[in-house]
Amino acid sequence: MSIEIITTADGSHSLRNSELNETYHSVHGALQESKHVFIKMGLDHFLEQHPDVSEVNVLEIGFGTGLNAFLTWQRSFETSQRINYTSLETFPIPEELWSKLNYAPDDRAKAGFVALHRAEWNTFVELTPKFYLRKIEQSLEDLTPPVESFDVVYFDAFAPNKQPEMWTQEILSKVSASLKRGGIFVTYCAKGQLKRDLKALNLEISTLSGPPGKKEMVRARKCSVFDK
């Protein structure tokens, strides 16, 4: 697999997979996209809706550069909740690439970014008392996540036209089943077929403003037992 580092419009790095002719993040700004889609509209929204929970269980589809995990780790210093972060990745990127990414603004952040990438695979690792990371080297096609186990799902697979097998009803059904009642699913994608598929799984769909360079994104909520 041929991968190269690129610089996106906000100055942050991303990667380009030349085989798929696809980038890991928006070329309009990798950092801006991840902060908007996954942190602001995902994690922060869940915490606003559930301020009294003591732990938040996050499932990420696509560890990739580690940017979403890194931003979530940073956010954990500002929240009262412990975050248990599970991320699936079929093709981990080598240290020669991730070590050159420019996401960390200072020495503490750099140490955290390195710890994320060097953490042992397939088991929970305590990076701080408030952030536990479990990276699983397996695809969602081959894995069935435990039912009603996650509060937030970051769905960050490659785009449907590049990786269609990750956007099928079967895959989305697994994700939906893994969400707790009241849990949320967020993704940068806003295609009509995705929204129809999520609605067919009885998720409540919200089409939201996207990050810079993208008009829309999707957030879906698994109905609570208290919903009418």
UniProtKB/TrEMBL annotation:
One BP term from GO: methylation
MnmC-like methyltransferase domain ranges (all copies): 131-222
Pfam families, alphabetized: Methyltransf_30
InterPro entries, A to Z: MnmC-like_methylTransf, SAM-dependent_MTases_sf, tRNA_MNMC2
UniProt KW keywords: Methyltransferase, Transferase
A molecular function (GO) term: tRNA (5-methylaminomethyl-2-thiouridylate)(34)-methyltransferase activity
Name recorded for this polypeptide: Methyltransferase
Source organism: Pseudochryseolinea flava
